[in-house]
Amino acid sequence: MILAQLFGLGTMFIYLSLTILGIYTMILLIKALKIYIKNNS
């Protein structure tokens, strides 16, 4: 029972980390794109 709860918590933590990482990556990509557009225009 405890093992299942720990596994569930671990899975949730991994999903949360991936979500935060994905959002962070998207923000960085958008910033890079804005700089790229500013330099080209």
Question: Explain this structure to me?
Answer:
The chain is mostly helical and 41 residues long. The chain has one domain. It has one helix and no strands. The mean pLDDT is 94. The chain crosses the membrane at residues 12-33. Keywords: Membrane, Transmembrane, Transmembrane helix.
List the helices and strands and how they pair.
Layout: H1 2-40
Characteristic terms for this protein:
mainly alpha, 1 helix, 95% helix, transmembrane helix, membrane, transmembrane
Q: Brief overview, please?
A:
The chain is mainly alpha-helical and 41 residues long. The chain is built from 1 helix and no strands.
Order of helices and strands: H
**Terminal Cα separation, in Å?**
60 Å
Mean pLDDT: 94
Low-confidence residue ranges: none
Radius of gyration: 18 Å
> Which band does the percent of strand residues land in?
under 5%
Structural domain tally: 1
Q: How many alpha or pi helices?
A: 1
- Helical content (DSSP H or I, runs of 4+): over 70%
Shape: rod-shaped
Instruction: Tell me the structural class.
Output: mainly alpha
Keywords: Membrane, Transmembrane, Transmembrane helix
Transmembrane segments: 12-33
